[in-house]
Amino acid sequence: MAWWRRGRRGGAAPHDGSDLESARGHLEEFARSRRGVEAYVEPATNVTATTVVLIAHDGEWTRRALPSRPKAFQVAHDLDVPVYDVNLTGYPARMRAWTARQRQQER
User: Fold this and answer.
1) From 102's CA, which of 1, 8, 55, 93 has a CA 20 to 30 Å away?
2) Which candidate, 60, 103, 53, places its Cα nearest to that of 79?
3) Cβ proximity of 13 and 19 under 8 Å
């Protein structure tokens, strides 16, 4: 059944949160190189692992999968940034505005 393999073209690694050190390194670099960074923990679903979204003051964002919800909160706390449960807070408007600006620039 091909739909189960969607997103795994070319032998790409699954985004299941199993590469914790790579994810942590990326998130640390993002948090260190931008100001006003906040973390939003997204729950696991049937098709994705638990993820952390880091959002900078201007709305720029990045997302990485992590192995579990407690690990996601721990990584965010280790980065020394405010951390929120996205189910309780939602996403900040600046994230949507930044994404919309990026799409406009691509056109």
Assistant:
1) 8
2) 53
3) yes
C-alpha pair distances (Å), 28 with each of 75, 101, 106, 107: 9, 25, 27, 31
The radius of gyration computed from the CA coordinates of the chain, to the nearest angstrom, equals 15
- Which amino acid would we find at residue 77? H
Query: What average pLDDT is seen over the chain?
Result: 88
pLDDT per residue over 67-98, tens digit each?
A: 999 999 999 999 999 999 999 999 999 999 99
Cα–Cα distance list, 88 to 24, 25, 40, 42, 92 (Å): 24, 27, 10, 10, 12
Domain chopping of the chain, boundaries: 16-106
Strand partners, 54: 39, 62
